[in-house]
Write a structure and sequence with these properties.
Layout lengths: L3 H22 L5 H24 L5 H17 L8 E3 L6 E6 L3 H13 L4 E6 L6 H9 L3 E5 L5 H9 L7 E5 L8 H12 L2 H9 L1
Parallel strand pairs: 2-3, 2-4, 4-5
Antiparallel strand pairs: 1-3
Helix pairs in contact: 1-2, 4-7
Length: 206
Amino acid sequence: MIALPQMILGLAALAGTGLAAVALARPPRGRLRWTFALGMAMFALEAVAGLIVTGYTETPSEYKEVVDRLLRKHKASARFVPAPEIRKREGAQFGVVTLGGCTPAVNEALEILAAQGITADFMRVRGFPFDEEVEAFLCEHEFCFVVEQNRDAQLRSLFLLETPVAKEQLRSVLVYGGFPLSARDVVKHITMQLEKPECLLSQSQS
C-alpha cells in the first residue's frame, strides 16, 4: 500500500513534469515559458528526490542511514540559529534562563533580586537546536532557574534531552495563568525555591 506522503510526492513529480512539457510544447517559447518550464522541472526533480528519501524500506542499513543523516542535519543546523543572549554579573549565585516574551519580566525580576542581594546570570534562548553557548551556560552553573509560561516545562525538557546537564541543576519557574508574565511572579517563585533546603545547601557549598 502506498503511503500518503509518497502519493503526494508522486503526484507532485507528475504535475511538475506535465506542466514543464506543456509550457515547452506550445509556441512561442519565450523567456518566460522557458523560466516556468525550468522551475516546474526542478519542482519535479525535488519531488523525485523526496520519493527516494522517504521511500519505504525494511533494510536495516538503509533505515539507519536515513536516521543518521537526519541527526547530522539536526546537529549541523545549531550553527545557523541565532546565538543566545547572555549577561553575566559579578558574584552570580545561579543562572536564570528564559525565552521570547518572558524576557522583559525576567530582566526586571533580576534587577529586583539584585537589589535584595541575590545576583544571577541571565540567558535568553533564541533558537533551537541549542548551540555550544547554551550548553556551556547551563553546565557552568550549579543550578539554573528556567522561566517559561508553559504548563509542561517544554524548554526545561528540551535542555534535559539535548544537553548533558543533570535534572537536579534545572529548576522550573512556571507561570501559565493566561496573563503576561510579571516580574513579581518571577521573584516570588525564585525566592520561594531558594528557601528550600537543597538550594540553601548548594549556596553554602559554593
